[in-house]
Amino acid sequence: MKRRDLLTSAGAVGFAGLTGVAGCAAPAPLPTRAQVVVIGGGFGGATAARYVRLLSQQRIEVVMIEPQPRFVSCPGSNGVLGGTRTLDALTLSYDALTSRHGVRWVRDEASAIDAARKQVTLGSGATIGYDKLVLSPGIELMFDEVDGLRRAHDDGRVLQAWKAGPETLALRRQLEAMPDGGVFAITVPESPYRCPPGPYERACVVAAYFRRAKPRSKLLVLDANPDVVSKPALFKAAWRDLYPGIVEYRPQHKVIGVDAAAGLLRIELQDAVRADVLNVLPPMRAGALAVKSGLANAVNRWCRVNFIDFGSSVAPDVHVLGDAIQIAPGMPKSAHMANAQAKVAAAAIVAQLSGVAVDAHPMLTNTCYSFVDETNAIHVASVHEYVAAESTFKPVAGAGGVSAQRNEAEGAYAAAWARNIWADTLGT
Amino acid sequence: MSLQHPAWLALALAWTAGGTFAAPAPTADELALRSLAATCAACHGTDGRPPAGSAIAGLGGRDRDDLLARLIGFRDGTRAGTVMPQLAKGYTPDQLSQLAGWFAAQAR
Predict the structure, then answer these.
(1) Is the ipTM reported for this complex over the cut 0.90?
(2) Is the pLDDT of residue A252 over 50?
């Protein structure tokens, strides 16, 4: 019965794929079911969609549900704030996924998951059944964890710009409007959060902009953590060497309240801090759909998975990827890691739907580059292997590390990394 | 599984052709090797083919022995680099050998 279903639906999507290639103008009807449905077109979801197609030699049909018209890369978006990149250069098409790789893209939001009936409900009210669901919902910013932040954010006065897009441009405009001699404050939430080095890279590239354009300005990094979370020695060296008198780092500064009109940040057990431009990053958790669906079963924030195939620990045939998961030891919430996880999950899904054994020893790599000025970059790298005895991924001992020092060669590699992972993720 | 086995080469060619014909379903070993090779793809491009002009080297279609010598050199510390000396230490010599064989069989 199940095999018959698979064959029937495979034929249906084969037809849909052909019409897409032929450039047929009439919109194809919404699929009512697919072997694999992917929710989310970010680094995790898009990679999973692409690699299920690739690894199954295009035999397994994939529907990707993503409401945004284009992919916007968070990696690189600090460069927009620093004035060295445009958001357009980080905005990419999903066309290759659909036309070249036969992924069926449904441009809508997934509003509900019924894991028992193996069915996803869309914003339009339509439903799509699945054999395997990949959920890569990204993060939700928990604005209500910081008093006054939701209103200040909704009013456009205190921005996050942590999800790259219009807010990135809006924060850039705030920085441009800030007078020379002003103060910009970035606040870092308690770990884990999306992109561990991101806040510190942001401090570097915005400080580089200040150094060029408004050198009497100051930049405060208010960190809820006891120390810089990623590449601490390298970031502190950059602040000390490149931005003396501009960047000031304050550990153990957890923001608990915002007064946008007065430009004040209230800090737990510390004096309040005043700044002209406030960039408050609140605590984060798995994307809202994961929480609403009961999949965020680790402290109601992150989704526990069985790491062998990234299957949810509570919902059979639901695979959760990327920043939304409860991480294994040493595993960052990064674009590169989401891409790597997606390939492990895609291979497992192809194996399971093909009736062959899932790889017993999957591997993951991670490399995160950060710019510390216009051209110099630093990296952190790691290799992770699945350890069956502990049912988790662990960093391989003796592997991984950080840059010896900031350098321009890694600035060039950072730019190449971005282009290459975009191509790997989107199939261009 | 031997990488020199003719059946394996045929499979590698089938992958290279883009799977546009009805090939047999992948076996567990093939999927596992493909998955291992995919850990290189974020930086080096899907199947080891990065976009044109990439500052990061392509791996597809390279000489197997040369590729393996470089990987082993990164692993044992005799070859300098930025990221690769740190990543190569995360793989066993046998895995590096499998990777070199797989990428050598891909199109450039």
Answers:
(1) yes
(2) yes
